[in-house]
Design brief:
- Chain B: It comes from Haloterrigena alkaliphila.
- The complex is a heterodimer of chains A (about 325) and B (about 160).
- With about 325 residues, chain A is an alpha/beta fold.
- Chain A has eleven helices and nine strands.
- Chain A folds into two domains: about 130 residues, Aspartate/ornithine carbamoyltransferase (Rossmann fold), CATH 3.40.50; about 150 residues, Rossmann fold (3-Layer(aba) Sandwich).
- In chain A, the strands form two sheets. Chain A has a five-stranded parallel sheet, covered by helices on one side. In chain A, strands 2-1-3-4 form a four-stranded parallel sheet, sandwiched between helices.
- In chain A, α5 packs across α10.
- The two termini of chain A are about 15 Å apart.
- Chain B has about 160 residues and is mostly beta strands.
- Chain B folds into two domains: about 80 residues, Aspartate carbamoyltransferase regulatory subunit, N-terminal domain (Alpha-Beta Plaits), CATH 3.30.70; about 50 residues, SH3 type barrels.
- Helices cover about 10% and strands about 35% of the residues of chain B.
- Classes of the chains: A alpha/beta (about 325), B mainly beta (about 160).
- At the A-B interface, α4 and α7 of A face loops of B.
């Protein structure tokens, strides 16, 4: 299967994922070996929403491959402010850059934008939709800590609007993973995501819960996301559930000694700072992994034989 | 011939209250109350002088109550029939020439419908000002936006683009 763009994790097979993670591991082990691999290459950064980690890690990744970036800058200082459509913006920046990274508040923005450009377009988050490059660094982190098969993963927090959750859940169906989704009823996984997960593996490995308590002891990995206060119709409703979806040192007594705790960051109060210094905490390593994983992705998409050869296609490599 | 081409299914429906047509299309066995949505899908609002007959909530042995739409002087294209199937899955299409039904078939759902429905997800890129045509994959029990992935199963008629 050839991939000209990376829009969702649904397009990635197990083989594709392993190709990216293996390449990331090689780069992680010896970044200097690829220091000039993409000299004179320009990556276009189009971030229509604020971003720290994703944007900076893409920028770092491109520069560590010997290339550079052109950055649209903030929406306020761009032609978007003048009413330019996304379709026009990507067609303009395509003329400047060898690949594009897009973050946009609207779901489906990356799909639409990819229909207008020939250079590779990587989705760096489209509203509440998908965030596949985050998923690849999540999988890299999970593989380093717990492996990717015969695994029980809990995903907790805002599952409704959490694009990192949607992408990760899809990707995990490629592996022997039991998935437990923990959230208040109002922030459950969107029904279309549940539909896809059931399509992917007959739903055998999918369970939804409203409390972490009953599943925590069985988990190898707990992936925590922020319960977004602004999503609730009133503060009281938020307060009713917020404390239920936090994890502190006292909760770890019921957890496996090998439990890996992850979070796409930024966090607010979902994970107590006291957990940071324990062996359970993987979220800062997870953020660090964004650079080698995005270096691997850029390398695969920018290579002469294209991403098709690199990601399970018919290329020579 | 009292109500000829509407009784093709074995006289299972009661006498109809709308006149027969000479040339055009009779869309029969539309679920009760959906006739105006059928017209909306076909882009017919009478403003172009189209000659229409519409029967709504008439008794039907098969459906209990059904609607019938007759469009004089117009034969539906396959694309139009495909899209009709989304809101009228039981419909039968009768092409009439010189008062005779010369072709009759059931609707079949298409794989994709484009430019017909608007996405119910206000966070979808197709609901903004972008130059993008809506596109939905047709599922067994609904439709799915090709851009944001939202699945709509009910009230599809309310999603018809105006």
């Amino acid at each position: 299967m050839r991939h000209d763009h990376l829009i969702t994790s649904k397009q990635l097979s197990r083989e594709d994922i392993e190709t990216v993670l293996d390449r990331a591991a090689e780069i992680d082990a010896d970044p200097s070996a690829v220091a000039d691999r993409h000299a004179n290459t320009l990556l276009g950064l189009l971030f229509f929403e604020p971003s720290t980690r994703t944007k900076m890690s893409f920028e770092t990744a491109m520069k560590r491959l010997g290339g550079d970036v052109v950055d649209m800058g903030s929406v306020e200082s761009s032609s978007v402010k003048k009413g330019e459509t996304l379709a026009d913006t990507v067609r303009v920046i395509e003329g400047y850059a060898d690949a594009l990274v897009l973050r946009h508040p609207k779901q489906g923005a990356a799909t639409m934008a990819s229909e207008y450009v020939d250079v590779p377009l990587l989705n760096a988050g489209d509203g509440a939709g998908h965030h596949p490059t985050q998923t690849l660094l999540d999988l890299y982190t999970i593989r380093e800590n717990a492996g990717l098969d015969d695994l029980t993963v809990g995903i907790m927090g805002d599952l409704k609007y959490g694009r990192t959750v949607h992408s990760l859940a899809h990707a995990l169906t490629n592996f022997d993973v039991r998935q437990h989704f923990v959230s208040p009823e109002s922030l459950q996984l969107p029904r279309e995501v549940v539909y896809d997960l059931h399509q992917a593996d007959d739903g055998a490995g999918i369970r939804e819960h409203d409390s972490l308590e009953e599943v925590l002891p069985s988990l190898d990995v707990l992936y925590v996301t922020r319960i977004q206060r602004e999503r609730f119709p009133d503060e009281q409703e938020y307060q009713k559930v917020a404390g239920e979806y936090q994890i502190g040192p006292e909760d770890l007594e019921a957890a496996s000694d090998d439990l890996t705790i992850m979070h796409p960051l930024p966090r607010v109060d979902e994970i107590a700072p006291a957990i940071d210094e324990t062996d359970h905490a993987a979220y800062f390593d997870q953020a660090h992994n964004g650079v080698p994983v995005r270096m691997a992705l850029l390398d695969l998409f920018l290579s002469d034989d294209g991403a098709g050869g690199a990601l399970g296609g018919d290329g020579d490599e | 011939m009292s109500d000829d081409h509407e009784h093709h299914d074995g006289n299972d429906d009661h006498e109809l209250r709308v006149s027969k047509i000479r040339d055009g299309t009779v869309i029969d066995h539309v679920r009760g109350g959906q006739a105006l949505n059928v017209l909306a899908i076909l882009g017919i609002d009478g403003s172009e002088g189209e000659e229409l007959s519409v029967g709504m909530n008439v008794p039907s042995d098969r459906l209990g109550r059904k609607d019938i739409v007759k469009v004089e002087g117009r034969e539906l294209s396959q694309d139009e029939v495909d899209v009709l199937s989304l809101i009228a899955p039981d419909a039968t299409i009768n092409i009439v020439r010189d008062y005779e039904v010369i072709e009759k078939h059931r609707v079949e759902p298409p794989e994709i419908v484009e430019g017909v429905l608007s996405c119910p997800n206000t966070g979808c890129i197709t609901t903004g000002d972008e130059p993008v045509t809506s596109r939905f994959e047709v599922l067994e029990d609904g439709v799915r936006c090709s851009y944001c992935g939202t699945i709509a199963r009910e009230e599809l008629a309310s999603l018809i683009e105006t």
